[in-house]
Specification:
Layout (H helix, E strand, L loop, with lengths): L4 E6 L5 H11 L4 E5 L3 H5 L2 H16 L8 H38 L3 E5 L5 H10 L5 H14 L8 E6 L2 H11 L14 H14 L5 E5 L8 H14 L9
Parallel strand pairs: 1-3, 1-4, 2-3, 4-5
Helix pairs in contact: 3-4, 4-5, 5-6, 5-8
């Protein structure tokens, strides 16, 4: 019996983990929910340091230097570049290890709903390069590594993109009160907006079957909203119908 890999994609605070777990419950356990492992990143404070570094650089880019403290500017820029590459490298390696576990589940005939796939890493890396958090050299190195390593890895049968308004994302970030994310919710912070601009072109060119869910129009925390999502899943990937029977 064919197993299915459903990847849940979307910006920070779009509701990926919530939907992943909901699909497992709704399938009666026929789908295994797989939540990305970020313990190492959080334990060592990488995420907080990354957000602090890139936010500091963004603030500095919006101000005039007037010849003052060029060395300070370069230090802040280099800090953003260091953490920009460090965080992507760490997430990539972590998600690569996750793929090994996913592959075993799929071989065992288990279907999986995955919270954030390794394929989305390319969005965050491109965003970092666009905003000078990753140098052109490191970006090219990452692209080459990605292509080399991802050969013959399990590919999603369906990607569900949770599309969200930036204002809604910031509200959810404020509500879940994670200290490392606090700066992202500030009105002047454009990090989430920059990512949103990249998501739609990415999903439409990803090369895999995909489903776009408007998270402001469909609340999959409710039974009615979840059923609408499942209708979309079974339409885009008809073989999954048996998982929700």
């Amino acid at each position: 019996m064919k197993s299915y890999l459903i990847s849940i994609a979307g910006n920070i605070a779009a509701g990926k983990s919530t939907l992943t777990r909901a699909l497992e419950r709704r399938s009666g356990g026929q789908i295994v929910s797989f939540i990305e492992q970020v313990d190492y990143v959080k334990k060592h404070g990488y995420l907080e340091k990354y957000y602090q570094a890139v936010s500091a650089y963004d603030r500095l880019k919006r101000t005039k230097l007037d010849g003052k403290d060029p060395d300070g500017f370069l230090r802040i820029k280099e800090e953003a570049e260091y953490w920009g590459y460090k965080i992507q490298e760490t997430y990539f390696l972590t998600r690569l290890l996750d793929l090994g576990v996913l592959n075993e589940l799929l071989r065992e005939g288990r279907s999986v709903a995955q919270d954030r796939s390794i394929y989305e890493d390319r969005i965050f890396t491109k965003n970092s390069n666009n905003n000078e958090y990753i140098t052109d050299h490191d970006y090219q190195k990452y692209q080459e590594l990605f292509k080399l390593v991802m050969r013959n890895k399990p590919k999603p049968d369906l990607i569900i993109y949770l599309e969200s308004d930036v204002h809604a994302l910031k509200g959810r970030i404020t509500g879940r009160n994670r200290s490392e994310e606090s700066d992202l919710a500030r009105p002047e912070n454009t990090y989430l907006s920059n990512l949103n601009d990249l998501y739609r072109p990415w999903i439409m060119k990803c090369g895999y079957p995909y489903l776009i869910i408007d998270t402001e129009a469909i609340d999959f925390r409710t039974d009615e909203g979840l059923e609408k999502v499942i209708e979309g899943i079974t339409y885009r990937a008809p073989g999954t119908k048996r998982l929700f029977a």
